[in-house]
Write a structure and sequence with these properties.
By secondary structure, this protein is an alpha/beta fold. The protein has 13 helices and nine strands. Helix content is 43%, strand content 10%. The longest helix is centred in the first third of the chain and has 33 residues. About 7% of the residues have low confidence.
């Protein structure tokens, strides 16, 4: 009888675990389909919507009660400001070509006294246009020697084609910066009375890649030459040339140096741990990742320390709010305090040892208390529930989640690398897939440079067109001068 009772008790517990798992999945699916995408959270301890009461001594500054936390992800504390009416910004003539039109009164002004003039300005959009550049080289012959004398043909990056670097660069920027797929670009060019076939526009990507591939290989070494990287990966559909099925999932592995604002995309046909292992085989330092096990082999090396992302831990508890709001809210509230501390570090321009000292004094006690609380919850959770998964996720990685307190350059999360993936995700939604693994590799090259341009406020169109025109004249030892962070425009 005892064995039968135990059997049914175990069966009941298994069924309860499975029910909790299915409930959590149902809530998550409903949120994905019908709910908001934002993870904005208002603290359960707030006295007013979005308003927090914290001990001002925590930050070493006086925080007025009316200051409001406007975002749980940014934890930005700011005083209420009076909303001002928008004021029209004056136009700066130095930034644009100016077309002047002078108007005289429709009458005889010869007997009138001129007292001044009134100037008004407005912006106009002048459509882009395609022009044909015709190069005429005059030929001469030396009558004595018979030698033919003619001017040297000016350098053109794509000399075997009828298109110029300005057109190739525009096609690349439209696709990889503006997320405009090829078939829409065809419509755009058609409005300029240019009939570019789909194959021609697609081939421009290959032409551009072949020209700057040496720069891409050199830039990879530049990005990896650091001791702190944030790493993430994102899938992309790729057409299959052989075998069953139309597409397979390839992955863009993204490596970000958040200190120097450098991004490197590396395309691989799968999600195996061997891919980051190969790229990071010579790397020594800190990698910051999410919970994906594919990074664990690299992180287990003696010369590499793996630090986890607090934003991913927070996301698990955000997803558990519908499962266990009281306990999940407690974790969210405490993490929100950690982000306020990070905001205070930025506001006070702390550097180096000041950052470590400030985190050790203010963030570390919160983290230690959270760890004790998580261990207490671990004895009462249903493992397969969303709250149980959140607790388990954090307990398995807690030392790695706390480690950011020991380094001044390390961020509390790896949101910067996720932000560097977002433009690729937006583009992927538009053009849906890559035609081949080779095409996906070229895509990685262009995202590498265009996203680094974005981080350094560089015009990507000007940058890549200039690189096309200069790279073949440069030695590999000079390639670093063309990297976006070092680039100086050489044309008007």
């Amino acid at each position: 009888m005892t064995e039968t009772a135990k059997k049914y008790t175990d069966l009941y517990q298994e069924s309860q675990d499975e029910i909790a798992k299915l409930k959590s999945q149902l809530i998550l699916y409903k949120r994905h389909i019908f709910g908001k995408k934002s993870e904005r959270y208002l603290s359960s301890t707030a006295t007013l919507p979005g308003q927090h009461v914290f001990d001002s001594a925590v930050f070493g500054v006086s925080i007025p009660e009316e200051k409001v936390v406007t975002s749980s992800s940014e934890a930005l504390i700011e005083t209420p400001r009076v909303k001002q009416k928008p004021v029209r910004k004056e136009l700066d003539e130095s930034d644009f070509e100016v077309i002047t039109e002078e108007l005289q009164p429709e009458m005889d002004t010869s007997l009138l006294k001129f007292i001044g003039k009134e100037v008004s300005m407005h912006q106009m959009l002048v459509d882009a246009k395609i022009v044909i550049k015709k190069i005429i080289r005059y030929k001469y012959q030396n009558t004595e020697t018979g030698e033919i004398i003619m001017s040297k043909m000016p350098y053109r990056p794509f000399a075997k084609s009828a298109i110029s670097s300005s057109i190739v660069s525009e096609v690349l920027v439209q696709k990889f910066v503006d997320g405009l797929p090829i078939y829409r670009q065809m419509q755009s060019w058609a409005r300029l009375n240019v009939d570019f076939p789909y194959s021609t526009l697609s081939d421009m990507q290959r032409m551009g890649f072949d020209l700057i591939k040496p720069l891409y290989d050199s830039f990879k070494n530049e990005v990896l030459n650091t001791n702190y990287l944030q790493v993430d990966e994102s899938p992309i559909k790729v057409l299959k040339r052989e075998g069953k099925g139309g597409v397979h999932l390839g992955y863009h592995w993204v490596y970000l140096d958040p200190v120097r604002n450098l991004v490197f995309y590396d395309y691989r046909p799968g999600r195996s741990s061997e891919h980051p292992e190969n790229i990071l085989k010579d790397f020594k330092g800190i990698i910051q990742t999410d919970g994906f096990a594919g990074y664990n082999k690299v992180g287990s090396r003696d010369d590499v320390e793996q630090i986890s992302c607090m934003a991913h831990a927070r996301r698990y508890f955000y997803n558990a709010l519908d499962n266990d709001k009281k306990r999940a809210s407690h974790f969210m509230d405490e993490v929100q305090k950690l982000y306020i501390i990070e905001r205070k570090i930025k506001e006070n321009n702390l550097v180096g040892e000041q950052i470590i000292s400030f985190r050790q004094e203010h963030a570390l006690p919160i983290l230690q208390a959270l760890h004790r609380w998580l261990k207490e919850q671990g004895t009462t959770i249903i493992p397969k529930s969303s709250f149980g998964k959140a607790v388990t996720y954090c307990l398995n990685r807690w030392e790695a989640l706390m480690s950011y307190c020991n380094y001044p350059c390390v961020a509390i999360d790896n949101n910067p690398v996720e932000g560097s993936i977002l433009p690729m995700v937006i583009g992927r939604k538009n053009y849906l897939f890559c035609g081949s693994d080779e095409s996906a590799g070229r895509t990685a090259c262009f995202y590498t440079f265009f996203l680094t341009c974005r981080l350094h406020n560089i015009n990507p169109k000007e940058w890549i067109e200039d690189v096309f025109n200069r790279i073949q004249e440069m030695k590999p030892s000079q390639y670093h001068t063309l990297f976006p962070q070092n680039w100086k425009k050489s044309f008007s």
